[in-house]
Amino acid sequence: MAKGMGDMMKQVQKMQKKMAELQEELENSNVEGTAGGGMVKVTANGKGDITSIKIDPQTVDPDDVEMLEDLILAAVNQAKEKSNELQQEQMAKLTGGLNIPGMPGLF
Domain map of the chain by residue range? Predict the structure, then answer.
């Protein structure tokens, strides 16, 4: 029985190491959300943190700030969605496609 526990602990340690590697990989990965045909570009890392926002100067219209706000919001949401998809893809690789409750929430 002790041997079984030792093997289980080795598996847990191996999984923890892979999780740490995955988190680092996600932090160093980038996804991009765009809106308005590329007039607004938002970059996020694989953990969902927004890392940059680029706005085409032609998009800035003082008389229509609401449109720019909508474009930024759309691009941010798209970047966040792509980041979530990347997390799920990477998690599926780590777990071999098993659906383990609570795992995506680790990021």
Answer: 2-106
Cross-strand bridge partners of residue 43 = 32, 52
Q: How far apart are CA 44 and CA 24, in angstroms?
A: 14
The sheet carrying 50-55 orders its strands as 30-35, 40-45, 50-55
Q: Per residue, what are the HEC states of the chain?
A: CHHHHHHHHHHHHHHHHHHHHHHHHHHHCEEEEEECCCCEEEEEECCCCEEEEEECHHHCCCCCHHHHHHHHHHHHHHHHHHHHHHHHHHHHHHHCCCCCCCCHHHC
Pairing between β-strand 50-55 and β-strand 40-45 as defined by DSSP bridges: antiparallel
The pLDDT value given to residue 97: 60
- In CATH terms, the superfamily for domain 2-106 is Nucleoid-associated protein YbaB-like domain (3.30.1310.10)
The mean per-residue pLDDT over the stretch 59-72 comes to 94
- Return d(Cα 27, Cα 55) in angstroms, integer: 23
